[in-house]
Amino acid sequence: MTTDVFTPEQRSAVMRRVKGRDTGPELAVRRILRAAGIGYRLGGAGLPGRPDLVMKGRRTLLFVHGCFWHGHDCPRGARKPKANAGYWSAKIARNRDRDEAARSALQSAGWRVVTVWECGMKAPDFGDRLVTAVRDQAAAVSIPASSSD
Question: Looking at 100-139, which runs of residues are DSSP E strands?
Answer without folding.
Answer: 112-117
